[in-house]
Specification:
Blueprint lengths: L1 H14 L19 H20 L5 E8 L2 E4 L1 E14 L2 E15 L1 E3 L5 E3 L1 E5 L2 E8 L6 H15 L6 E4 L1 H5 L4
Length: 174
């Protein structure tokens, strides 16, 4: 009971906002991650979760992506159209119409004074699959717990999660 209370207190301290300045009028700062940075960070989070389940110190986790997500920016489209008609006497022989579209990105001023394109929508990266190599992965009950935890955390199907034990992983690599 005392351990659970201490863990709850530590969790509360970690989640409690430390910065109390008013940021209501400031635009949120976004950090663009590369695919490698994103998968490493996600792998580390899953490894922590697996460690909590199995009690082992360093499970190996690999996350692969199907897509890195997409950012759609606000644009303003200007269309111009030119038309030319060719007559032969009083009858119309030919009409030629040329159209041109010019697309410009709508920019907004950031808190630091720089201009950045206005984001309309941003989709999250899509995960292709997760492989977990864990000492507990050889035990069917532990394997099931790990698969369920990863499926739930990342909203994946069980076919996208592979959990193996170290002995299975090193077999044939020796």
């Amino acid at each position: 009971m005392l351990i659970a209370a201490c863990a709850a207190l530590v969790l509360l301290m970690l989640l409690w906002p430390m910065d109390t300045k008013n940021t209501e009028n400031e635009a949120p700062e976004t950090v663009e991650l590369t695919a490698g940075d994103y998968t490493r960070a996600l792998s580390a989070q899953i490894a922590q979760m697996v460690s909590a389940i199995t009690g082992e110190s360093e499970p190996q986790v690999t996350v692969t992506l199907r897509t890195m997500g997409e950012t759609v920016y606000a644009t303003e489209d200007k269309q111009s159209e030119k038309s030319a008609e060719e007559y032969s006497g009083e009858s119309l022989n030919r009409t030629q119409t040329d159209g041109d579209t010019q697309k410009t990105y709508i920019l907004v001023k950031a808190a630091d004074g720089s201009q950045k394109p206005l984001i309309v929508t941003k989709t999250e990266p899509e995960i292709r699959g997760v492989v977990v190599v864990s000492r507990g992965g050889g035990d069917p009950k532990m394997r099931e717990k790990i698969v369920e935890a990863v499926k739930t955390a990342l909203d994946l199907s069980s076919t996208q999660v592979c959990v193996v034990g170290y002995s299975e992983y090193t077999y044939g690599n020796e």
